[in-house]
Design brief:
nine-stranded mixed β-sheet, alpha/beta, Rossmann fold, about 270 residues
Length: about 270
């Protein structure tokens, strides 16, 4: 029996003679979990299914949402609804965000035990097989992350590009003192050019991001963009977007990224 996650809304209604209230519940997802041997912990998931999932035999693409709390799930549902995109959404809840998202520790962002390599192995070796066994996937996969999890999206794109078809990083990139690691990883990864055939990557940052006052992340992404175009050319679809009027994690960047990787429309 599936355990549904319900969004609770309290609505108060008042007229001239009677005051009354009504409790309204919306089903937004299914609570699920997976016991990870790699991470040695239980990972909580929220799964949102397309509206005709239960009444059809169709298979659907999967959208994996990092930082997968209820708020993150609702943003994903809103973006997919606006695009009229039928996707299974898998929201992955955090346990130790710094550990899971960071492959390296530097003075700019110190992490006691960087564990992105294990988290990526968990996703590839445990989570994806579990989801595709238990839900009707058509094999097409998209991953989306923001800020620190956006950096993880970039890491996943470079370390194991075969895992996903589409990569969306919002407020994504790395600081200057991380370039030694990500620059070397980029050079190593780009030697095997064929593994990027037909991949789609959308990266977005704000030019008014308070977490990037010196434009280190933005400048790093400009250099990365040059490498992508020079080394990979038309093997993949790539777009780097900046926003002037938003702070950290620009609000339109999820919709814009999803639209790009699903339709390739500008």
């Amino acid at each position: 029996m599936r355990n549904y996650l319900l969004l609770f809304v309290f609505i108060g209604l008042i007229n001239s003679t009677i005051g009354y209230s009504q409790d309204v519940y919306f089903k937004i997802g299914i609570k699920d979990s997976i016991q990870s041997k790699i991470l040695d912990e239980n990972r909580q998931l929220i799964i949102n299914l397309p509206k005709d999932y239960e009444t059809s035999t169709k298979s659907f693409p999967i959208l994996y949402v990092l930082d997968g709390n209820e708020r993150g799930l609702l943003k994903a549902i809103e973006a997919t609804n606006e695009l009229k995109a039928e996707l299974i959404i898998v929201a992955i809840a955090n346990t130790d965000r710094d550990r899971d998202m960071m492959p390296v520790s530097t003075p700019t962002y110190e992490v006691a035990n960087p564990g992105a390599v294990n988290f990526l192995s968990f996703i590839g070796d445990e989570l994806i097989p579990y989801i595709e066994k238990n839900y009707r996937s058509n094999g097409k996969r998209t991953i989306r992350g923001t800020s620190l999890s956006g950096l993880f999206v970039m890491y996943a794109f470079l370390e194991k590009p075969e895992l996903f078809d589409n990569y969306i990083g919002n407020s994504a990139g790395w600081y200057a003192d991380m370039e030694y690691y990500f620059g070397a990883l980029t050079n190593k990864s780009f030697k095997n050019k064929d593994q990027f055939n037909d991949k789609k990557l959308f990266v977005a940052n704000s030019l008014a991001d308070p977490f990037d006052p010196k434009k280190e992340v933005h400048n790093g992404m400009l250099e990365f963009s040059k490498k992508v175009k020079t080394e990979l050319g038309n093997r993949l679809s790539f777009k780097y977007v900046t926003y002037d009027n938003y702070g950290h994690v620009p609000f339109p960047s999820f919709y814009d990224g999803l639209k790009y990787v699903l339709t390739n429309e500008e």
